[in-house]
Amino acid sequence: MKTINKLFLFLGLTLAVMSCEDAYKIDQPGRLPAEEAFQTVGDLDLGLLGAYRLLDLTPEIAFSATFTDEISIGFDNGGQGLSLYRYQLNAGSVAASNFWTRNYSVINAANRIIEASEFIDVEEDPNVEDGPTKSDVLAQARAIRAFAHYELLRYFSPDIRNPSSLGVFKVDFVPQLNDVYFRDTTGEVLELIQEDLDFAQANLVDESNIYFFSVDAIKAFKARIAADLADYPTVLSLTDELLTKYPLSEPNEYIQMFLADPQVDGEAIMKFNRTVGDRFDGQGATGSVNAGGWVGAIFAFVDSTINGSPYYEMSRNIFNDLDPNGARYQVLVEPTSVIDDDPQVGDNATDDVLVIGKYPGGQQPLLNDLMVFRASEMLLLRAEALAYTGSLNGSSSSAAALLKEIRDIRGVNGGNNPLPSYSNLREALADILFERQLELAYEGHRYKDLKRLGEDANVGISRADVDCVDQGGFCELNASDFRMVSFPLPIVEFNANPELSEQQNPGYN
């Protein structure tokens, strides 16, 4: 069983093989060939830890919070994030280049491990007791490759449910310098993702492991993909299995998942570990999608209190929808917040300061683990699938029953909520989006949720007047807007491959 501390041991080997700055098609002069850099299964395992070290969710959290309706501009903001807050998204945006190059760097790292495994004939090191197996390392590398390919597809494919639509580059090999590619179809990329996940599920050693891809994490990943593809039978099957094993956390445990030091695992199926002294122990690029570092530094400079220079604050809509006695309020609303019971447009910025408290950190302020998959997401995906398949109301196997369940266990209305009743699918989906916004706030889901469900629910980005009028009036954005449909391909890619600009996504030409 690997431990996260082994991340610090991989550097000597993997720095000879890959650079964290490499994009998907950079083959650096002087790089060691795979057969020389990786000579044992142990070497492969250290390389795998290097690939894990590239995985990050802070760019998604930063983009989703700033572009949608999760934040307001804080009293200590010095211009951070204003372009995204004003819905400025184009081929030159940091978001486009970060999501593109970062994920292809991850794919490149995974592919180097997969390539190197071909030169190692043994399944395990004969001189290492209880060491890693080649098949398990390969399974995790393919899971990592699938994860990065899918993040690319979710943001850059204009229609993930149409297999003939333009997707991204399908890269299941180590490219050579100066290779040029054009977009594969969404269906072709999805086929590779599914093949990688099937292989991973069949070959992973760990059924559950919070910090690494496990069989359970693959099932959660497949459930998320199935929801995006409207494959609701698969969503129902996988979420039923996972929720049996991973029940929702009770209020105290839920609070400790985010605020305790150290954080408890609770209902987590998989998360990215962040510890003092690791690669992410730093402030990162504040106010930028190039976030990295402490996740809490997405919102504040120093710490998660009112004295910590918050440059982003909680949106008024989220705050107004929280039950002050519920567990979510205790996680999201930092106690030093200044709360105006009746805020108005034009008020002094320090009269109403809703400090985001979800990522306080422990030994290091603002440094928290990042949730990848957890039980509440599975329950809400299940509610979505039930709604789409006609089970809106009634029995315990209905969307309404699941919404009541999660509200009760989070302590909303003292844990005694009425059973919702929906007259049509649109009402149910709007309520699911409402619940997802509160439950998964500041975890990077909101943009993708609106992209998937917004049109059917008739819900788009909608900011309270006090959050947007004084910032130029950027209050609404329809879910059908081209900026909600897909990201633009980045200029950084066109610089290397000008002809690719002919495949730019709609609205960005």
Please give a structural write-up.
- It is a single chain.
- The chain is mainly alpha-helical.
- It has one domain (4-269, 371-503): Serine Threonine Protein Phosphatase 5, Tetratricopeptide repeat (Alpha Horseshoe).
- It has 20 helices and six strands.
- The chain has helices spanning 11-14, 34-37, 41-52, 58-67, 82-85, 94-117, 134-156, 186-203, 215-228, 232-245, 251-259, 316-321, 327-332, 375-388, 399-409, 425-439, 446-457, 465-468, 482-485, 491-496; strands at residues 71-73, 268-272, 312-314, 370-374, 461-462, 476-477.
- α7 packs antiparallel against α8 (186-203) and α9 (215-228) runs parallel beside α14 (375-388).
- The radius of gyration is 22 Å and the shape is globular.
Rg over C-alpha atoms, rounded to the nearest angstrom: 22 Å
Strand order of the largest sheet: 1-3
* CATH top level assignment: Mainly Alpha
* Shape category: globular
Task: Give the termini separation.
Answer: 49 Å
Return the string of H and E elements: HHHHEHHHHHHHEEHHEHHHHEHEHH
- Quote the beta fraction: under 5%
How many H/I helices? 20
Using the coordinates shown, work out and report the CATH topology. Serine Threonine Protein Phosphatase 5, Tetratricopeptide repeat
Biggest sheet, in brief?
2 strands, antiparallel
CATH architecture, please? Alpha Horseshoe
- Please report the total strand number as a whole number: 6
| Strand-pairing-aware structural class | mainly alpha
Mean pLDDT: 92
Number of domains: 1
Percentage of residues in helical conformation: 40-55%
